[in-house]
Write a structure and sequence with these properties.
single chain, about 475 residues, alpha/beta, Serine Threonine Protein Phosphatase 5, Tetratricopeptide repeat, six-stranded mixed sheet, 14 helices, flat, disordered N terminus
Length: about 475
């Protein structure tokens, strides 16, 4: 990465001239791109001549990193790099002793970073090792100052203002004193108050989102789990799934029985906010097929009060169909290429005809599924639909009329010697049909596919109720 630190070693009258020079130098290096160590070395020399020791040191380091065998860069890095380290050490000493703790930490961290990179290239630099102890003391001072500030702000319930101070402490010591607990309070308390306010205003969806944000930070903040349970309970909608009036068609009745049995399990597995009430005698009670009529209002309200249901889900099945056609076969002629070589070396292409069949077949399993969802409080239909549930399968493949053991790539759907070039096409897709799938799904497999579609329709319709 190419960069320049802020120039610190030139007089103000020369600022504009040197700034223009630095910009030109950056442009030169950008054009050089990844051309190598030499360009960085030359750039470093120019910076050094202008007195920009710190920037020159960075470029000598880059030059040596790009080519560790660059002896000139190694010598220069040892000399100019040491000056850079000394400058940073002086900055640290000054800032440390004038209680500019954060600035002192930054200077020492730059020093250690440059020192470590040079050491990795086997260039040994030096700085007063007593500064290591001073650095640790600076960290302690810095953490204490920011911790006290954060603690005071949390006590004043200025949680958002406390967060930046806690972040500074965690940068150096995440376990410093009571930092972890303060961080949890500063982050979670505003969210907690917002969630409580949402619950009081019956905005359960918003409360749930906010409570989950708290849970991403900690699982044990105040009565978080109780509030989550409350919000989830308020979001959860209860359904009574009513058994359909038995169909006179045994096959349709089989579908209805399957759906009635499996809808509850599907809701349990896929819908966290939907509860199916399936332990009530009302599910099979007479007169539960026309709840949206005005004469049944009292009956509806009695069921609602007895079960606590929010919605009634009713359905039936009609027009079951199971059909198939094929396999049908159509006979066609193809051509096989035969290559021979004459005595004079000429290659002769001949094409002999062969017979093959194009086989097609399909199967369909379908029925109409009709449902309606009734609001148990208002006795109004809030959703209804009739949808054709259909699963089908089709095959199309080619088969040889006689056993074939040659190279499939020698076959053509046309005779290349007799077919105009404009009518010829790539035979790859045609050839693949000889190895295409040739077995239809069974009706039982299609039935399973259709049932899965139906269960998804149920979960989508029930899950959409608010």
């Amino acid at each position: 990465m190419l960069f320049f630190s802020s120039p610190t070693q030139f007089n103000k009258p020369n600022t504009i001239r040197l700034s223009c020079y630095i910009i030109s130098l950056c442009a030169l290096l950008a054009l050089a791109g990844c051309s190598g160590s030499r360009q960085y070395f030359k750039a470093a020399e120019r910076l050094e001549k202008q007195g920009l020791v710190n920037d020159a040191a960075d470029y000598y380091l880059e030059a040596l990193q790009r080519k560790p065998t660059n002896v000139e860069a190694r010598i220069k890095l040892r000399d100019v790099g040491q000056k850079h380290i000394s400058n940073l050490a002086s900055d640290f000493f000054r800032d440390y002793n004038t209680q500019q703790t954060e600035s002192a930490l930054g200077s020492f961290e730059k020093l250690k970073d440059f020192y470590g990179k040079a050491a990795a290239l086997d260039v040994q630099l030096d700085y007063p090792k007593t500064y290591n102890d001073d650095y640790q003391q600076a960290i302690e001072t810095f953490c204490l100052k920011n911790y006290n500030q954060a603690s005071a702000l949390v006590s004043q319930k200025k949680y958002n203002e406390a967060v930046p101070y806690l972040s500074k402490v965690k940068r150096y010591n995440g376990t410093y004193k009571n930092t972890q607990q303060l961080d949890i309070i500063a982050t979670c308390e505003p969210l907690y108050q917002s969630a409580v306010n949402s619950l009081e205003n019956k905005n359960y969806s918003s409360a749930l989102t906010t409570l989950n944000s708290i849970r991403s930070k900690t699982d044990h903040y105040k009565d978080l789990n109780d509030l989550l349970e409350l919000a989830n309970a308020q979001q959860t909608k209860s359904f009574i799934l009513f058994a359909p009036k038995p169909s006179s068609n045994a096959s349709e009745r089989e579908i209805e029985d399957y759906m009635f049995t499996n809808f509850s399990q599907a809701a349990l597995q896929k819908l966290s906010l939907v509860k199916i009430i399936n332990n009530t005698p009302f599910q099979n009670a007479p007169g539960t097929t026309d709840f949206n009529s005005s004469t049944s209002l009292d009956f509806v309200q009695a069921i609602r009060k007895a079960t606590g249901a929010d919605y009634f889900y009713m359905f039936d099945v009609a027009n079951r169909n199971q059909s198939g056609n094929g396999p049908s076969k159509s006979s066609f002629k193809g051509f096989q290429e035969q290559v021979t070589r004459r005595n004079d070396g000429a290659i002769i292409f001949n094409y002999s005809a062969f017979d093959y069949n194009v086989v097609k077949g399909q199967r369909i399993f379908s029925y109409d599924f009709k449902y309606k969802i009734i609001n148990a409080y208002t006795n109004q239909i809030v959703s209804q639909q009739t949808q054709n549930i259909s699963a089908r399968d089709a095959v199309e493949f080619q088969e040889f009329q006689q056993k074939f053991t040659g190279d499939i790539n020698s076959l053509f759907p046309y005779n290349p010697q007799q077919t105009p070039p404009t009518s010829q096409y790539n035979p790859s897709a045609w050839r693949r049909l000889f190895s295409a799938r040739n077995t239809l799904k069974t009706f039982e497999e299609l039935k399973t596919d259709a049932y899965n579609q139906n269960i998804n329709l149920f979960t989508n319709s029930a899950g959409s109720m608010k």
